[in-house]
Write a structure and sequence with these properties.
Distance between the termini: 65 Å
Structural class: alpha/beta
Shape: globular
Oligomer: single chain
Radius of gyration: 27 Å
Helix content: 40-55%
Number of strands: 18
Strand order of the largest sheet: 3-2-6-7-1-8
Number of helices: 29
Length: 646
């Protein structure tokens, strides 16, 4: 085995030296360093040296699961998302699961698990639960159904309180590897590095990732409190090479890193960023203007640097939020419905007030069973910072008044159950049309139905007739020419949506037999009447714009969603989009709070390192100090005032 290890890259050899000593380890590698390649090498070698032992590998997305499974196909390897791994190892302990949920629900410090706002949950609450505790895409704690967020808390509770559970998992897996560790929830790290120590069994926990690419709010970010040279600490092994980015981008990225790792171009002549044994130079640009016209920026890059914004595989424009993209991509109305409904916002304010009163031991405002939504709003008298009644502000707007009238006479107990979530609209974003959809979509059944209609239209329009026939609900008789002619006429009529609303197209598709209204849509309409009524009057052509965006047929992506991907050309738009967690101007000036500064610099680092050839960063109307800092990072010759380009 010693000879075989000599063929492995130096960092992987160092990992196995750590494994030999029984130590947990962390492989830290910057963007494009080939962390997945190292992970696969470690898995293969671990299986080779331990043919009777099982290896668990957890990662953040189903796409990553698929990639690792394709690279290592072995019966001893179990690759899954972290959520699936946890559930697989706790789902059989139903008695303990029930006890855990009840205990957490009764704990005032745990806000994410709540069954009853006011009363303690009795120990026998789940005694008559027929199907036991279940893990699904949605949460319904009263029925024993937990979702992603609750699973993490419940699993942490079980491993904390039942050391035998840690022993069972250690017996099952000699090696547990966690990819993209920085995005892993803190409770999961606690499980593996603290609760596991309550068991005397031995196993190895290995982490792979990059602290500078920690861009999610609930991720641990780094393992600083667990790292060290002591035998019981996590051994950090840095990987400094960069196989993706050209030299100019590596230079910029190193200026942005704050963890001491300075990347170097790969010495592998076959690395993607090498040509004839020499690292590519690449191009970085810092562009700015006073008018904020992104069209001018795109035109400049097209005409002067040959960028092709029609090729979504090759060129990407990165914005901080879906909201910033919605206007450009043409689905503003749908985004506003799902993400900023004013009436549901008022309902949420009331629920938050109830929680605040309870937390601060203030007198509860009594809500009776027959109280309408309107009556409850009047009871709470919610005001804004200017001490104006929120209800009065809302009713002064004719559009909002119309929405309010739909709900004001309904029971508050019904209205409080209405939740609108943008994930129901924009989940499953692809970077390009060839991406695989992840499993476990959060799209609601209305959006799924509209997708089915548009999929039929797209397949037929693109002459993918066999695929079209496979998904259409139209029952075609092979020998009937008239039947085929009717289908062609029906789909041709459906394609010409013109000014038709979403509901009109749903009925058209149903009547023409292209996409029948099924039970899922009927139930959705019954249970989500308010949302359906808002969406049904939107033009279907706007949904088609959303479809193009979600299917990766546009150059737009959010900065968070682009993580893990790479493109030849990347344009980064530095606009906070009203999100207080980020501030690009203060990042350049170094004046933000530490948390905002770190968060902004990390997302900027991730964006810049997506580029395989060229990077352009656009800043709207920067002051002199921003330009001065940009000059330090990008070099003077790469700072361009678009207003002075003729």
């Amino acid at each position: 085995m010693a000879e075989e290890r000599l063929t492995l890259e130096p960092e992987v050899q160092e990992i196995f030296q750590s494994i030999d000593k029984g130590r947990n380890f962390l492989l830290s590698g910057g963007a494009g360093s080939g962390k997945t390649f190292s992970l696969v090498s470690v898995i293969r070698q671990a299986i080779l040296e331990n043919p009777t032992s099982k290896v668990a590998c957890m990662t953040y997305t189903n796409a990553a699961v698929k990639e690792i499974e394709e690279r290592v196909n072995h019966k001893n390897l179990n690759v899954s998302t972290i959520h699936d791994f946890l559930w697989d190892n706790i789902k059989h302990f139903q008695k303990e699961l029930k006890k855990a949920i009840i205990s957490l629900a009764n704990n005032e410090d745990v806000s994410k698990i709540s069954i009853d706002d006011t009363n303690l949950i009795p120990e026998n609450y789940y005694n008559n639960l027929e199907d036991g505790i279940q893990y699904k895409e949605y949460v319904r704690l009263s029925d024993g159904i937990i979702s992603h967020d609750e699973l993490l808390l419940v699993a942490n509770y079980l491993f904390d309180n039942y050391p035998k559970l840690s022993s069972i998992v250690k017996d099952k897996y000699k090696f547990i590897f966690i990819d993209e560790y920085q995005d892993t929830n803190k409770t999961i790290i606690e499980t593996f590095l603290i609760h596991f120590k309550k068991s005397n069994k031995k196993n190895i926990i290995g982490f792979f990732g990059d602290a500078m690419q920690s861009i999610y709010e609930d991720g641990i970010g780094n393992l600083d409190e667990y790292k060290g040279n002591d035998a019981n600490k996590v051994k950090e092994i840095p990987k400094k090479q960069n196989r993706r980015n050209p030299k100019s981008i590596i230079t910029l990225a190193n200026k942005l890193r704050t963890d001491g790792i300075k990347q170097e171009p790969s010495k592998d002549p076959n690395a993607p960023n090498m040509v004839n044994g020499v690292v590519k130079q690449g191009k970085v640009l810092f562009l700015y203007s006073t008018d904020g016209d992104i069209g001018k920026i795109e035109k400049f890059l097209q005409e002067n640097h040959n960028w092709n914004f029609q090729n979504s595989k090759q060129t990407k424009e990165l914005n901080l939020t879906h909201n910033l993209i919605a206007e450009k991509a043409g689905f503003r109305t749908l985004m506003d419905i799902y993400d900023s409904d004013p009436i549901i916002g008022l309902k949420t304010d009331i629920l938050n007030k109830i929680k605040d009163n309870k937390k601060n031991n203030k007198p509860a405002i009594e809500i009776l069973e027959d109280d309408t939504f309107d009556k409850v709003i009047d009871k709470f008298q919610l005001k804004n910072r200017q001490r104006e009644l929120k209800k009065n502000i809302l009713l002064a707007d004719p559009t909002q008044l119309q929405l309010y009238n739909q709900l004001k006479d309904k029971l508050f107990s019904e209205v409080r159950k209405i939740y609108l979530n943008k994930d129901s609209l924009i989940d499953d974003k692809k970077q390009d049309k060839d991406d695989e959809n992840k499993k476990g979509s959060k799209r609601d059944n209305l959006i799924k139905h509209l997708f089915k209609i548009q999929n039929s239209i797209s397949l037929y329009t693109n002459k993918q007739y066999n695929d079209f026939l496979r998904i259409t609900d139209f029952r075609i008789h092979i020998k009937s020419i008239a039947n085929k002619r009717q289908l062609k006429e029906n789909i041709d009529n459906l394609i010409n949506v013109g000014e038709k609303t979403i509901e009109e197209v749903i009925f058209d598709a149903h009547e023409k037999g292209i996409c029948l209204i099924d039970d899922k849509l009927i139930i959705f309409k019954e249970k989500n009447e308010y949302l359906y009524n808002r969406v049904k009057d939107v033009k279907f052509s706007e949904f088609q714009k959303l479809y193009e965006y979600l299917e990766g047929q546009t150059p737009f992506s959010t900065q968070h969603k682009t993580k893990g991907t790479e493109f030849d050309n990347v344009l980064v738009i530095l606009d906070n989009g009203g999100w207080n967690n980020y501030n690009f101007e203060k990042m350049f000036l170094g004046t933000a709070t530490q948390s905002v500064l770190e968060r902004t610099q990390k997302i900027f680092y991730v964006c810049c390192t997506r580029a395989k050839e060229n990077l352009a960063v656009y800043f709207h109307n920067p002051d002199a100090k921003v330009i001065q800092k940009a000059t330090d990072w990008f070099e003077k010759e790469n700072i361009i005032d678009i207003d002075n380009i003729h």
